[in-house]
Design goal:
The complex is a heterodimer of chains A (328) and B (292). Chain A is mainly alpha-helical and 328 residues long. Chain A has 15 helices and no strands. Chain A has one domain: ABC transporter involved in vitamin B12 uptake, BtuC, CATH 1.10.3470.10. By secondary structure, chain B is an alpha/beta fold. The chains are: A mainly alpha (328), B alpha/beta (292).
Chain lengths: 328, 292
């Protein structure tokens, strides 16, 4: 089962990536559009494929992978099935950081300020979550801390956008809370991809230590796991991956919750296998959601988070229902 | 602030708000009353477009206040002139306390405000937005009539029509598009569409099946390969909505297209300043001709 899982998922992600390239309001032929991806210079079809659809598909892939992987790593480190960047407020604080960088004008003066500010925002909330609901905290304290952080970050984001001199800014509160990949460009890819890649590499490197941690903290320490170092890696990895994602795509929820849960039984509950599997699964889920928003409402910018929440929220309720029995 | 002004007007306003506007009808001017036909002496405008027409047509001292939008350089062609008037934000309370005998409003002005003012016995003239060049002329006449400045309005109309006729560009139509934040554009049946046609362009948004204002996805704009794109100047601060105007795909299309230097504000309202927009488009169309 596990052996076939990775090639199958990689194939699914590849398929969805191509489907994402082929879906859009401009009706283009299959061969024409795919060949336009590789032509150097040229007409409108080349522009549409290389400058509009390619960045959208690449960002869908990267953002989904970052969210799935972060969810799996947080769940593994906290040994808590409800940990997820969106639910515990990491995405909303990243959005606050990004909005502050944009509205203060820092991002206009220095492009890297956008992902860095989102990364800082995400980092602060991961640290807060670990403090308030660290490995010994239960599911309840984790969720309560997450609600408080999300509410505060959401309110501050709305405040900053409402005070902006730009009349469009206040209308974009929904975008920052729900996420969208509409009309992104390669500039956004180049800005965010290095941070996402770095964050994901750090998170993947925690795999063996997270395996040891399933035996408990004491057992892990006796196996030579440096818990402080592991914590730092989870914080930095999640902050970079989620922060950069939110900076260019807004906060898309529930991907990091649903995907690790669906895949955990298939990898025998081993974090070292769950991490890469969740990255692939997250990419597949986000690409599928981004295809769906374009098919459902081609001319309107339906937000990604709407679809992921429609799938994720019932799933979340189901998890809470199951946990009730465990914690009581 | 107004709490400290124990004016009978305020009390009357409060009573009207509490008990409905019925009481005011008794005081409303009767149609045909000679007092009503006299030119108004205290005019307040609460709509950007009536602001500008009133500033151009009113007798000295007749107009006392214009909306705050008239001072926004991205929306108004008459920022300097507007600085000489009291600003209002279009709220019924603020407008009523200016004791106007005529309020000029748009038809989309908050209906609650207009009803409240009418209920208080203030004459409100609502001017519909202009979707065609013919309606621009109607607007000039409506505002002129409301102000009792028929002769000035007719002079404005005559001048506008002759200037407009002189700016028309005959011959082949080149593809063009209006493109604004969030991919918003003007389709068929809009004032922009008529200006594009008049100046030798055809509107790709109208051909894409869009009527009125609406969204044209960036992909479809790129595929239409317009020879001319009119966009807007971004507001200060930052928004994702406006990022589309600097998207590399749009930039690539614009690099191959003609450019026109003109003010966004001149496109907004049906005033004589609309001619600046028309002139800019006509010049851009002629420049396009010479490069081909």
């Amino acid at each position: 089962m596990t052996r076939a899982l990775f090639p199958l998922m990689a194939a699914l992600v590849g398929l969805l990536f191509f489907a994402s390239l082929l879906v859009g309001p401009a009706a283009l032929g299959l061969g024409e559009s795919l060949s336009a991806l590789f032509r150097g210079e040229g007409g409108p079809v080349v522009l549409v494929m290389q400058e509009i659809r390619l960045p959208r598909a690449v960002l869908g892939l990267l953002v989904g992978a970052a969210l799935g992987l972060s969810g799996a790593a947080m769940q593994g480190f906290l040994r808590n099935p409800l940990a997820e960047p969106g639910l515990v407020g990491v995405s909303s604080t990243a959005a606050l950081g990004a909005v502050l960088a944009l509205q203060s004008g820092v991002a206009a003066a220095f492009a890297l300020a956008l992902p860095l500010a989102a990364l800082a925002g995400a980092g602060v909330s991961v640290l807060l979550i670990l403090l308030l609901a660290g490995p010994r905290g239960g599911a309840l304290s984790l969720i309560l801390a997450g609600i408080a952080i999300s509410a505060l970050a959401g309110a501050l984001t709305s405040l900053v956008l409402n005070l902006s001199p730009n009349p469009f800014a206040a209308m974009e509160i929904v975008y920052w809370m729900m996420g969208s990949l509409a009309d992104r460009s390669m500039e956004h890819v180049w800005l965010a991809a290095p941070f996402m890649a770095l964050g994901m590499a750090v998170l993947l490197a925690t795999a063996r230590n997270l395996d040891a941690l399933t035996l408990g903290e004491d057992a892990a320490q006796s196996l030579g796991v440096d818990l402080n170092r592991l914590r730092l890696m989870v914080v930095l990895g999640t902050a970079a991956a989620v922060g950069a994602s939110v900076a260019v795509a807004g906060a898309v929820g529930f991907v990091g919750l649903v995907i690790p849960h669906l895949l955990r039984p298939l990898v025998g509950g081993r974090p070292s296998l769950l991490l890469p599997a969740s990255a692939l699964g997250g990419a597949a889920m986000l690409l599928a959601a981004d295809i769906a928003v374009r098919v459902i409402a081609p001319d309107q910018d339906l937000k990604l988070g709407v679809l992921t929440a429609l799938v994720g929220a019932p799933f979340f309720l189901h998890l809470i229902w199951r946990l009730r029995g465990v914690e009581a | 602030m107004s709490v400290f002004v124990p004016s009978s007007d305020l009390i009357r306003a409060a009573v009207l708000v509490l008990f409905g506007a019925g009481a005011a009808w008794a005081e409303a001017p009767v149609p045909g009353d000679p007092a009503q036909d006299a030119a108004p002496s205290r005019v307040v405008s609460i709509n950007l477009c009536t602001d500008q027409l009133a500033m151009l047509l009113a007798a000295p001292g007749q107009l006392i206040s214009v909306s705050h939008l008239a001072l926004d350089p991205l929306s108004s062609s008459m920022v300097e002139q507007a600085a000489g008037y009291v600003q209002n934000r279009g709220g019924a309370e603020q407008v009523y306390l200016m004791h106007p005998d005529l309020v000029l409003a748009g038809t989309y002005t908050a209906t609650a405000t207009v009803e409240l003012l009418t209920g208080l016995g203030v004459k409100v003239v609502q001017v519909p937005p202009a979707d065609t060049l013919a309606q621009v002329v109607d607007q000039m006449r409506v505002v002129g009539a409301a102000l009792g400045r028929h002769a000035e309005a007719e002079a404005m109309v005559t001048r506008f029509q002759s200037d407009l006729a002189a700016l028309a560009v005959p011959g082949d139509k080149a593809p063009a598009a209006m493109y604004y934040p969030n991919g918003y554009t003007a389709g068929a049946g809009t004032l922009s569409d008529e200006i594009l046609t008049l100046t030798g362009f055809h509107n790709v948004a109208g051909e894409a099946g869009l009527t009125g204002g609406g969204i044209l996805p960036l992909e479809r704009l790129v595929m239409a390969a317009p020879k001319m794109i009119v966009t807007s100047t971004p507001y200060p601060g930052q928004s994702r909505s406006e990022e589309i105007l600097t998207h590399p795909a749009l930039r690539a299309v614009r690099d191959k297209a003609a450019r026109a230097r003109m003010s966004d504000a001149d496109w907004v309202c049906g005033t004589p300043y609309l001619l600046n927009a028309v002139r800019g488009m006509a010049e851009a169309r002629r420049a396009l001709e010479s490069t081909q």
